[in-house]
């Protein structure tokens, strides 16, 4: 149900009902910044959270105006503080009373706004290196519960932000229920490579329990991080480190055939074919397509073993 109010300065972006709860935060130890959100609104992450490595993180919600996210990052990039950016973008927005906005910059400065026209219950809390905000909540305990959960959570920034979202839901959450969620984390300093600067970018566009799905995907991403680290260690001929990383990945995702398969390939390529055989056998038993891939790898030189060992693998 999109609505447009001609009083808004950017009517094409305004009036989307992204009533929601969200968090913007920074890890002072790593410099990483991020934003996370949940709402009963399809694909809320596309609308509500805006991040850029070395610049900041922004949540724009309620009767969301996406231009506040785009312009906010532009102004942060120019060196404005979070407080200055909130003042500047809202000054130009005739619909400010129906907006909710939170910004954290690369220095950890935090600013937030909840307009008087936001649907109750609505409010925000700012703390050291974070801001939590919510509107159209079942009750007014939601954002204080988020703040408390984030401050007492341990682990990486992404996990701490997800704990805050889960606390919001436990406290009552969105009056309308759940539908979509998103979680983004970027580097504190830009490398100039967007694919490296965006460390986590997970979006659940439509799901009955989006936070459960978001947690599952975060676990999958962590497991693949260990798998990638194992591959890099193999390239450096650091076999001991590689297989520690592979083992960690497999413990995290024991049913994932992809991780098992490439572990077996790596074993075979460093001459530990006998160790690889039980893994190949398990993978082939569950899905014969992996055997087809194995033949193709041998053909192009990505499986560097002799014919005798190759035949052993194929008969698994």
Uncertain spans: 1-14
The CATH architecture category of the largest domain equals 4-Layer Sandwich
Structural class: alpha+beta
Global Rg: 23 Å
Could you estimate the helical fraction of the residues in percent?
Answer: 40-55%
What does the oligomeric state look like here? single chain
CATH superfamily heading of the largest domain:
Aminohydrolase, N-terminal nucleophile (Ntn) domain
Count of individual helical segments: 12
End-to-end gap: 55 Å
How is the topology of this model organized?
Elements: E1 16-18, E2 20-26, E3 33-39, H1 44-48, E4 49-52, E5 56-64, H2 66-77, H3 82-91, E6 99-105, E7 110-114, E8 123-127, E9 130-134, H4 142-152, H5 157-171, E10 180-186, H6 194-197, E11 198-204, H7 210-235, H8 239-252, H9 257-269, H10 273-286, H11 289-300, H12 307-314
Antiparallel strand pairs: 1-5, 2-3, 2-9, 3-10, 4-5, 5-6, 6-7, 8-9, 10-11
Helix pairs in contact: 2-3, 4-5, 5-7, 7-8, 9-10
């Amino acid at each position: 149900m999109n609505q447009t109010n001609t009083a808004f300065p950017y009517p094409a972006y305004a009036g989307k009902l992204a009533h929601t709860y969200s968090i913007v935060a920074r890890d002072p130890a790593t410099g990483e910044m991020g934003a996370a959100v949940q709402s009963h609104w399809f694909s809320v992450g596309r609308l509500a959270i805006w991040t850029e490595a070395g610049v900041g993180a922004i949540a724009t919600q309620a009767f969301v105006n996406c231009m506040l996210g785009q312009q906010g990052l532009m102004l942060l990039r120019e060196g404005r503080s979070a407080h200055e950016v909130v003042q500047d973008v809202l000054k130009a927005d005739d619909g400010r009373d129906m907006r909710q906005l939170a910004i954290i910059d690369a220095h950890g400065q935090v600013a937030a706004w909840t307009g008087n026209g936001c649907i109750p219950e609505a409010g925000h809390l700012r703390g050291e290196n974070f801001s939590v905000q919510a509107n159209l909540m079942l009750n007014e305990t939601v954002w204080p519960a988020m703040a408390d959960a984030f401050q007492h959570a341990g682990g990486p920034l992404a996990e701490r932000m997800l704990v805050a979202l889960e606390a919001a839901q436990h406290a009552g959450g969105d009056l309308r229920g759940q539908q979509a969620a998103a979680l983004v984390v970027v580097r504190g300093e830009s490398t100039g490579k967007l694919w490296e600067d965006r460390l986590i970018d997970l979006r659940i566009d439509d799901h009955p329990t989006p936070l459960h799905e978001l947690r599952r995907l975060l676990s999958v991403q962590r497991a693949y991080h260990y798998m990638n680290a194992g591959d890099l260690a193999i390239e450096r001929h650091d076999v001991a480190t590689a297989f520690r990383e592979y083992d960690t990945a497999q413990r995290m995702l024991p049913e994932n055939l992809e991780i098992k398969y490439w572990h077996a390939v790596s074993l075979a390529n460093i001459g530990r074919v006998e160790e690889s055989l039980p893994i190949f056998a398990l993978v082939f038993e569950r899905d014969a397509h992996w055997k087809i891939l194995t033949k193709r790898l041998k053909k192009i030189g990505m499986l560097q073993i002799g014919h005798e060992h190759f035949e052993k693998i194929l008969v698994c």
